Amino acid sequence: MTVQVKRNVWLELEPKVSGSYVNLLPVTGVIGYAQPVMTQEYVSNLLDPKVLNTDDDDNIAIKTKDEDDHYESMMNKLNSLTEPATSDGSSAMAAGHLNLLDKDFRGLTSEAVTILGESERSVVLFLTSDEEGVDPKNLLKLNVQVTTNDEFQYYNNCYTIASQVTTVVNSRCQLTNSMKPAVTVIVRNIRQDVAQIPAQSPIAIVKLNKAASDCKRLPKTSRTKIKTEKSSYPTIKSDLNPVKELDRLHKRFCRQWERLLSEKTYEKSLTVEDNYPYFSLAVKPRIPFGLTKFKELLMRVGLNQNVKPMRVIDKDNLNGGLFSCKICDELILDRYALQDHIYSEKHKRNLKSFQVIAGLQERIYLGRPVIQEYLEQLEPELANQLIGLDLILEVLDIDNPSNKPFYHCSTCGDNFMDTSLPTHVLSTVHVFNLLREYFPSAWQRFSTLENTANWSQIDFQAYVSIISKVNECIGIRRPVIVEGRDRLEEAIDKLPTDLYTSKQEDIAVFVKTLPVVDTAEISKKPASLPRTRTIARIAVSLDDVSLPPQGMARVQCKITNVPHAQVVKEKLVLVSQNPRNTICSVSQGSNNFKWFRFRFICKSSFCRVMLQQQVPTIMVSIHNTRTDTGVNIPNGSDLALVKWKK
Questions:
Q1: Which residues of the chain are under the pLDDT cut of 50?
Q2: Which pick of 158, 168, 493, 602 has the fewest CB atoms within 10 Å?
Q3: Looking at the structure, do residues 451 and 595 belong to the same domain, yes or no?
Q4: How many domains in the chain?
């Protein structure tokens, strides 16, 4: 037999006695031994030229002048096979083995294709055939006719391919990173909604062009040219308004996001460990087979957050204590079978039907934020519009878990709550900040078009295509979970950036295929104002302070999460009270206080940043508005919110 997957072989066991097969398995788990048959002597004899050669005169090739040019020899042979049979039947015999005129090839997409409603775009399709002995490389440099694959279109009625003649050339496949025969065709979306065609979809039928006067190869001077009809890519609805289209997408996202937030996953996570103890047990859960790098093997899931959680990989007492996958109902015999299973398509597909049910400590260990449960329930079309999710951090308040976590975008430097996530991640500001930092070639495409009011339909198509391409190259990532605010800066420093930089070349090549900006049309529109962004940071106290009733004090505070202190040196910043500060009121100067009976008051003011040992600090005034008791403010309290323009 042949080893199929890594070190695994499939054996059919037949018990000699009646009873459960589990009781027949030895304790050590060893049921047999295997040894290779392809020894060094066997391989040497197999590859010996003396064995490979034969004395049969019929198998000895006759040298011709075409052997000096292997490409010429191959193409001359191909032309002879496609010519009609002669009177002596020489070509008919060859055509009996390979008659390309009667062969049908399928055109497969190597990547996911997104086409806007009632528009069209050019797509590269790679040729493949189910028949044995038929190599698509035989069609290189030949004219072929491409039509719609009616069988595939019957179940995916979202596109059409008009009959068109093109030339087969070698193109690089992104999936296999190899050169394969391919054709470039125009695919049209016949519906008003956006069409999503997944990768490896056989959307076209490719045949040798019988109507052409000759099926001979192209001359050497035009080998790299692709003769296709010039398309006005991208062609979309003439009445499409980019601003309204972005607003429509935002409203759709917000409606679905509001429904997901109503499930209150975070509130339910606080009670999971009390109702179903797991990480709080005296005996901590252990990862099967010692695969410590696969922390997700300890994950507990359920159909929703209201059911009792179950481990994905757990011991099955009914089968002799062997591990089994509960969501796939499969036994796991060893660590190699476990790794093969968790990477299988069946396991990934079944896992999408469940939600992770975990407490806060369990989520911190697994590195799975609460908001990930919402993101995995989004519609695929909406999820494909989100980029830079791995640069968003979910910051928990472990000391006071009743406070909901807030979210920090390391790219934009903004803090926001879960209700504001759609507004932030779908904003062009967030997308442009990510493109500016990691994909300069894509950012250059929109460097003069930050104002969406100046966009044309072509600009909107390019914007959507770039986002889809980034997700295709990198994949839809997941946010990062942080245990507390004091570890936020450390977590930001640990964020990997090589994931984006390694794909810069692929994105740059893709951007070059996008249509060029129509500068004449842009010049007619009013110039957009330079865009600035607001950066918000928390200021924490550096000393312990005690305030008597209605007492006031000046406190020195440190501005947190400022990677480069020189950037804010002597900068005027806007200081206001932190919304989470329920201890005292904050202001920069005492003249801004107003005396009311309210417990907390605040009025924004400006303050200049000073550096002390390369630490940005500000001076703020705090006031105890209570008339009966004093307050103690410990070191590191979040007192003020500091904002400035960049």
A1: 3-6, 20-21, 51-68, 84-98, 212-235, 522, 589-603
A2: 493
A3: no
A4: 4
Q: How many CB atoms lie within 10 A of CB 546?
A: 11
Pairing of strands 392-395, 480-482: parallel
Question: Is position 245 within any domain?
Answer: no
| Cβ neighbours around 73 below 10 Å, total | 14
In this prediction, residue 112 carries a pLDDT of: 85
Q: What is the pLDDT of residue 631?
A: 85
Residues forming beta bridges with residue 107, ordered by sequence position: 127, 204
**Of 581, 393, 580, nearest in space to 483 by CA:** 393
- For residues 435 and 446, is the Cβ–Cβ distance under 8 A? yes
DSSP 8-state class, residue 403: S
Q: Say which CATH number the domain at 565 has.
A: 2.70.40
Digit-coded pLDDT (tens) for 250-304: 888 988 998 899 989 999 999 998 899 888 888 878 888 888 888 888 889 998 8
Give buried/exposed letters for 497-523 (b at 16+ CB in 10 A, else e): eeebeebeebbeebbeebeebeeeebe
3 part of a folded domain: no
pLDDT in tens, 409-425: 998 988 999 888 888 99
Q: Is 591 helix (H, G, I), strand (E, B) or coil?
A: helix
Q: Answer yes or no: do 109 and 216 share one domain.
A: yes
For the whole model, what pTM was predicted?
Answer: 0.48
Determine the structural domain holding residue 84 and report its residue range: 65-97
CA–CA distance, 171 with 228 (Å, rounded to integer): 15
Q: In this structure, are 474 and 582 located in the same domain?
A: no
- CA 454/CA 466 separation, integer angstroms: 18
- Taking each helix axis from N to C end, the angle separating 428-438 and 457-474, rounded to the nearest 10 degrees, works out to 60
